[in-house]
Amino acid sequence: MSQPDASPDCPSPKSSTSSFESIQWSSDETEGFVTRAKVVRYQTLERYNTQLKKFKENNQLFTRILVIKLVEKSRATDFENRCAAVPPGREVSVIPSVTYSYPLLTKDETDVHFPPTLFYPDFLHVMSSLPSLPPIEEYTVVLTTEKGDRTYAYCTRYNKQSRSGADHFFPEVFVVVSPFPAPAFYYTLSRSLVDVALKDAVDYNKLFASVHILKYPFKQQVASGHQVVMGIHLNNKYRPFQTLMSPFLSKIGLNASMFLFLAILAERRIIVTGSSITDISLAIQVLVKMIQPLQWPHTLIPVVPDSQVELCHNPTPYICGLLRHNLNQLKEILVSEISVTADLIDPIVFDVDQGVILPSPLCNKKSVFVLSKSMGYPDSLVKRLMDKLQKIFARKGTPQELDAKLEDKISRWYARQFGHFCHFGRTALSARSRRIMVSSHPQKSSQAFLQWFLESGMYQAFVQLKLDFDLDREMIENFEKLCKKYAPKITKGALKERGATVA
User: Fold this and answer.
1) CB–CB of 167/195 below 8 Å?
2) Cα(36)–Cα(450) distance, rounded to whole angstroms?
3) Where are the stretches annotated Disordered (predicted)?
């Protein structure tokens, strides 16, 4: 990996990073970071926790399956035509439509929850690029309603051919809807269902009804009933296509990579823009993968359709892809200069070709430190991680080798910051446990970071899902091994106070 040189014309940041030991925040500023993290969590996570508990009690495999096809405008509903409004001067003959749903959708559900353009955002471009489209694409759309209900839509888009193989049909999108973030499992299910659905004379109602009655294999539950359903093998160790991070991160450079990573952890609104849908989608996949084993618990839309740019006005955190020509519709929410307050470095706009363009171009390391500090990161904390990643950016190796090193360094950094959460078991999310985690950390910079990060939806969603649901066990087990090795030590007295034991 190699890093592009900084621009010589870049203006100097307004503050210095010569000292990496002092925190340089007032108590009011520190409280501001903590308050923001709490507010975001209350807005987006509390309702979702209730939703997950209800899903676990009902224990259905999924909440809905949709099939999205391109149909003539005259065959689509009025709502679907409104969703697919095209720019002036542009004509389109076919638009996305929900052609099948199990269970059946009511009119209100269709209009409110499942606008088909979200699951088929590039319908305007499909006709011109049909021969070059991959046979199968997978992407996740995460939506959060105003009430805080969250939906994960696992989309599998596949190409169909006539029996002769000479004629191509428009790709169809198969969508498995669930409130639960388990992409490896649901893409296995989706791929299997697509394989069956492509066969002739398949009764969709019978197929999906048979699968719908199954139970999700939650943690510590036996999944013996999930092995074969109507010829579908759900116990295959299939994993979705693994996005490679290092080629993209090498292209944008260390400064942009570091800043975007920290902005995601700080739960900012992030708009990824460019001229190519493929490039935008890839960038978002890389950003989401970069924070693993943490997961982005907020709205995630790989590409916002041209007709629904208003989704970017959402005040809660999101990561949204947006074609560059739509940026002019967001003038009122985009700022033009650096703000030194935490609330105003938001939204962040990243162009896949030009780099970070808002709040300010990242010209050198000092730019990263200035902006990161305004989001609540002490300089020394950022410097330690940046130094580790810089060594990887300078290395040579295959993308797979470099990705493995990046994942290891980031996971070790997590373990050194908050890996001691493993000591607390089910009390890890209590206010007292969080205070102990902060006070027991030996480094002041990490204490300052943990004060607000442990209040965030990002951290608390990760712990909650780890405790109660079956995440990617291999990834979590590897992270727990790193926690045992690198996590800050906690005194036996503190653990006894919480009823925990030394792991």
Assistant:
1) no
2) 13
3) 1-23
Instruction: Print the domain residue range for 313.
Output: 245-387
Domain count, the chain: 3
The model's pTM: 0.76
Instruction: List CB contacts of 11: < 8 A, sequence separation 6 or more.
Output: 363
Residue holding tokens 């269970």? 103
Q: Is 299 helix (H, G, I), strand (E, B) or coil?
A: strand
The pLDDT value recorded for residue 228 is 46
Residues 361 and 7: their CA atoms lie apart, in Å, by: 10
Cβ neighbours for 49, distance < 8 A, ≥ 6 positions apart: 464
Q: Residue 383: give its domain's CATH number.
A: 3.40.50.11500
Residues 71, 99 contacting (CB under 8 angstroms):
yes
**Domain-ending residue, one of 387, 421, 442:** 387
User: What CATH number does the domain containing 154 carry?
Assistant: 3.30.450
Same domain, 87 and 148: yes
Give the CA count within 13 Å in the CB-facing half-sphere of 69: 11
76 and 194 co-located in one domain: yes
Instruction: Give CA–CA dist 104/173, Å, rounded.
Output: 17
**The token pair that represents 225 in the structure block:** 């009933």
195 and 277 assigned to the same domain: no
Per-10-residue mean pLDDT of the chain, 503 residues long, equals 48 42 60 70 61 68 89 89 77 88 73 79 69 71 71 83 54 87 79 74 79 67 42 44 84 93 94 87 90 88 84 88 86 55 71 84 83 91 94 91 94 95 86 91 93 91 74 78 91 58 39
Q: Is the preceding peptide bond at 293 cis, omega within 30 degrees of 0? A: yes
Name the residue among 286, 318, 278 with its Cα closest to residue 301.
Answer: 318
Beta-sheet strands, E only, within 32-85: 64-72
Looking at residue 279, what is its pLDDT? 86
> Which residues contact residue 251 at a Cβ distance below 8 angstroms, ignoring those fewer than 6 apart?
none
pLDDT at 214: 74
CA neighbor of 48 nearest in space, from 296, 333, 337: 296
Q: Residues 464, 369: one domain?
A: no
In a domain? residue 375: yes
Pair (378, 405) in one structural domain: no
Alpha helices in 84-182 (DSSP H): 107-113, 123-129
351 and 376 in a single domain? The answer is: yes
pLDDT at residue 489, rounded to an integer: 86
- Give me the amino acid identity at 129: S
Contact 48, 150 (CB under 8 A): yes
SS3 153: strand
Taking residue 315's Cβ as centre, other Cβ atoms within 10 Å add up to 11
**Do both 111 and 203 map to the same domain?**
yes
d(CA 274, CA 324): 5
Residues 82 and 212 in one domain: yes
Within a domain: 19:
no
- Look at residue 31 and tell me if it is in a domain: no
